[in-house]
Amino acid sequence: MGALPPGALLLGALLGVCSAVLEVHVGTGSVYSVEGEGAVLPAWYTSSSQKKPYISWILRKTAGEHFQILTYLDGEVKVEETELKPRVGFLHPVLTHNISLFINATREHDSGQYMCSVNVVDDIISPVRSMATINLTVLVPPAPPACRLKGSPTVGANVTLSCASQKGKPSPMYKWQRQEPTKQVFFPPAQDRARGTLKLTNLSLDMSGLYECEAENRAGSAKCSIILEVHSNSEGAVIAGAVLGSVGALATVAFFAQRVIGYRRRKRDGQEEAANEIKEDAVAPKTPTWTRTPPADTISKTSTLSSIMGSRDRPYGASPPSDTASILTAAGSYPGPPRARAPPTTTNGAPWHPPQPLAPPGGLPPYSLARAGAVPVMVPAQSRAGSLV
């Protein structure tokens, strides 16, 4: 067999060098998974070396953070302390050159860029070929949406049905439709699929029914429904009148109850004030004074009466005292007693005694009668012959 030409030897050498270059391959650049399900990131490498490789999987978040999650070194697999530790690993034995990564029970925050790098001793390493990247996106199905009605569903009015889901990745789209017995599908502009609204204008009674909204994305879908009951204007007026009447009745009862309570309170306060005034104005009773000072005209009249009664009891022949002895002047002055006459020593041979004044009827003297409040009466004098003077 002859020798090979120099050109063939050079080509064989170049092919051997190229086959010895380490290279990492990926089955796809993007992987999608639904939250709660598993995901596989397919990857493998080619190398002419029979020595054990050094493999590393790194997760890079959108914020620029890097986490090393899995490594293979000197024949040992090591799972780093991350949230993925109980759920991540190599899908196949590493020596088979299949370095695919699996993640169980994916979560939304598992999304990110996963980078795999391989290094083998005695192999030519190229920074570009020894590393590969796979993007993982964890999809989240829509949460059950909430259906709402905005507006008054009366004949001729306009209402808006809204539908919104609080969770979903990517953001869900919404679709409204009317269910049996009268099924109906709506289109823009009445329906806004991005916002989840449905506008119904110029309502009529036959538009009443069950309306259903479906929120959907690549991960799944969820539904909600609402019953639309269109009322006539008369029914609305009756309902409004009943509500207003009830409110008015309650207000009237409350008003009169307040007035009655206020009246009773004012009446009670007035009675308490009157009782307090009586207690403050009350004066303790005084002991009556029975001793009275007779008026001046009563004393004068009593003295005159005593003088007259005394003159009737005097014996004949005795001179009566002057009237000025018992009557005060109008000015209140007293002229003094009359001049006394010498009394006779004997009368018909018997000794003379001055006459004693007689007590008035009842046995009380004039001054006692005056103190008791008796009113004196003027009695005309009587002459010796018995005639009135």
Number of helices in the DSSP assignment:
4
Largest sheet: 6 strands, mixed
Quickly give the structural class.
Answer: alpha+beta
**What percent of residues are in strands?**
25-35%
The percentage helix is 10-25%
Poorly predicted segments: 1-19, 298-336
Whole-number mean pLDDT: 76
Query: How big is the Rg?
Result: 69 Å
User: How many individual β-strands?
Assistant: 21
Please characterize this protein's 3D structure:
With 389 residues, the protein is an alpha+beta fold. Helix content is 22%, strand content 27%. It is built from four helices and 21 strands. Strands 2-11-10-5-6-7 form a six-stranded mixed β-sheet, with no helix packed on it. Strands 12-13-17-16 form a four-stranded antiparallel β-sheet, with no helix packed on it. The N terminus is likely disordered.
